[in-house]
Amino acid sequence: xxxTARTLFDKVWDSHVVAVRDDGEALLWIDRHFVHEGSxxxxxxxxxxxxPLAEPELTFGVADHYVPTRGRPVVAPEIAEMIVRLSDxxxxxxxxxxxxDDPAQGIVHVVGPELGLTLPGLLIVCGDSxxxxxGAFGSIAFxxxxxxxxxxxxxxxxxxxxxxxxxxxxxxxxGLFVSAKDLALHIxxxxxxxxxxxxxxxxxxxxxxxxAMDGRLTLCNMSIExxxxxxxxxxxxxxxxxxQNRAFSPTGDLLNAAIxxxxxxxxxxxxxxxxxxxxxARTIAPMVTWGVSPQDALPITASVPHxxxxxxxxxxxxxxxxxFTNIVIDRVFIGSCTNGRLDDLRSAAQVLRxxxxxxxxxxxxxxxxxxxxxxxxxxxxxxxxxxxxxxxxGCSMCVGMNGDVVAxxxxxxxxxxxxxxxxxxxxxxxxxxxxxxxxxxxxxxxxADVRALTLLED
Length: 458
Description:
The protein is an alpha/beta fold and 458 residues long.
């Protein structure tokens, strides 16, 4: 009897199924559970039932969403209380926490991979929608709600209905200054914010295998904006090289056995997907968003669509047919779990080096580790010389916390993942783009094609 061909997602899912109910839902074992300051409601449910944490060694706390980036003493009492509560819960229940005083503190979706907590073939959950980021390593990773967080704390398991599988093939090579962020916005604009709803995406093709791990993390991070439940990239030699010699990575014989297993994590040749999408990488240009949804994205060479909803145009202060390169900005932001990694900062610094920003801006590295590495390379001096602020790690202006906000009516070129109304502050107008494109906007004072900028002055 011939075994049924399976996708990468099938293989990882099947290896975590504990039981299946009559209605088809599966009880899954959870390998890593990340919690943050906002998880305190779930810990309260644990305490109300006087229950211990099921698996302290598989639970990791990270202070990221509400932490200040301009000086570590927390001024706001309600925020300080949440951060302290996370550390208190860690001491009480015996799990590892990366709090404000920890040298590895940062955004959870940056910290997990750089510490070796994120590994191929794992099942990872967190009370944050962008947990899909970790699928860049060939793991299944998705965000969960407060009640689900409590269930995992109590049992280290979770009931889930298996999603369908969708493969996105990106053939050929991405062009100059076309990044994983541009690819993610291109796909979201192509299929819409609900285009991948009910699906786990597997990315494949030359353009994907060519991406460094930082780029793969960006792509999987943004997949949630297209409605995906999660996203994955099959582990390869680049993945294996990345995860070795990290704080929590396996070593010795355990590492050798793990690598042998990781090399089996690929979709079988005849595996069937519920949907397939094929994209020519050469057709993708640097992208910007013009509206209030990540699907409102077009190449920088385009103009505001004449079909744009009037209420969206009113909120964004734009006119139909207005060229993107004529849109003046007020400030920039570089950072977040989408684009706060070292490669992202290098990309922005490449454009900013020797130039001055015409608008103010904030650069917040994705973790304290990234910050130290960037400073060792002198990237912080590039940003400061350009006139931008270099601050500590945290979610920062992505969620408009601790004064890191865009004022009402102001326009921000941002490397974040969402441009919803009020996301970066009440009345804020956000344009999503890559770090290089944000840097180009900073030095021109308007949305700009980074390719033209670099060719002009090279």
